[in-house]
Design a protein that fits this description.
Strand order of the largest sheet: 2-1-3-6-5-4-7-8
Strand content: 25-35%
Number of helices: 3
Order of helices and strands: HEEEEEEEHHE
Largest sheet: 8 strands, antiparallel
Radius of gyration: 15 Å
Distance between the termini: 23 Å
Length: 176
């Protein structure tokens, strides 16, 4: 099971610094940290927003389920739910970030097993390296990322592979 020191650091970060909370919304519903969201309301990627420190840069959003298959027995976790590169500041006044780049890992919504306690779905926002080429990591023909490759996801290894900078913001909700 991967160590994922970056996950622990991110959770500590927003506990200490609320200015690092990534804006998440599903439709018109803004999500607060630790808020419960029914799985049916989170089956498509959220809109994200944040007052990024460098508006000319691009950013990557990564989503993990930290509690698979259950919070008390998370041997399969974390499970990767999404990697979307190429987020840029939109022209709107609400600090919304948008991406027209192809996904690296397609989004899958919450789907804990029946009778499971709530899971934490964590969204991380990283600044991309200036020379990051997402096309090198895009699946052939836009295929779905294999489920088995999503299990026990090593975020620390991906951060190194993609040469991502420090965490810019993060947030999470709970669902079951």
């Amino acid at each position: 099971m991967p160590i994922n020191a970056s996950v622990k650091q991110a959770l500590e970060l927003i506990a200490k610094d609320k200015s690092k909370v990534l804006g998440l919304s599903y439709g018109s519903k803004s999500i607060e940290t630790e808020q419960y969201i029914p799985r049916s309301e989170a089956q498509s990627p959220p809109e994200i927003s944040f007052l990024v420190p460098k508006p000319s840069k691009t950013y990557m959003c990564i989503c993990l389920d930290l509690d698979a298959p259950s919070p008390s027995f998370s041997v399969l976790g974390p499970i990767l739910h999404w990697i979307q590169p190429g987020f840029r500041v939109s022209q709107s006044a609400d600090n919304r970030l948008t991406s027209s780049d192809p996904f690296i890992v397609d989004y899958i919504g919450p789907a804990p097993p029946p009778m499971s306690a709530t899971h934490r779905y964590v969204f991380f926002l990283y600044e991309e390296a200036g020379d990051f080429d997402g096309k090198k990591h895009v699946p052939v023909d836009g295929k779905s990322y294999p489920k088995t490759s999503r299990m026990r996801y090593d975020l620390d290894a991906w951060i190194q592979t993609a040469d991502l900078g420090e965490l810019v913001a993060m947030n999470y909700f709970k669902s079951n």
